[in-house]
Amino acid sequence: MKKAMIKTLCILTLALFVMSISGAAATTGATTGNGGKVITITQLSQINTALHKGPVFLSLGASWCPHCKAFKPTLDKLAKEYAGKVTFMSVDITKSPKLAAYFGISVIPDCSVIVSIKKGKYVYMQQNGKTTTVRSHARILREKHARSVYEKVLNFAIKNKSS
Fold this sequence. Notes:
5 helices, seven-stranded mixed sheet, alpha/beta
């Protein structure tokens, strides 16, 4: 069982790496110049393409989730405030269950800031300003009232890009 899981993870990592270096994408305007809007995505390739421009704020939630609905105005304001610096992307886990599984979603809303890809793995910005490839160390869960937490992580990500 473990060997099959490791093999599957290796294949997914390799596919992610190939997509990132080949520039393969099915984008819907996924650039940091997206006018301060949140882009709904359905494929990892959209994140990979946006990462060429800068950090990606990724929000995973669902249209039926009351916490996600409460967070939406904050997400929209952040997208406008950080327009041109960060690409804001959203995944509806009901419509994209494969992405929900890929990111290991158990609680929504679930947000993170991706700053790059290293050795086929996403690199996430943590709340302490350090980066990690372990998403669980960088997740921001149900912080709908703590806009300052998001701003702190976004500012670290922008600073990380310029250094």
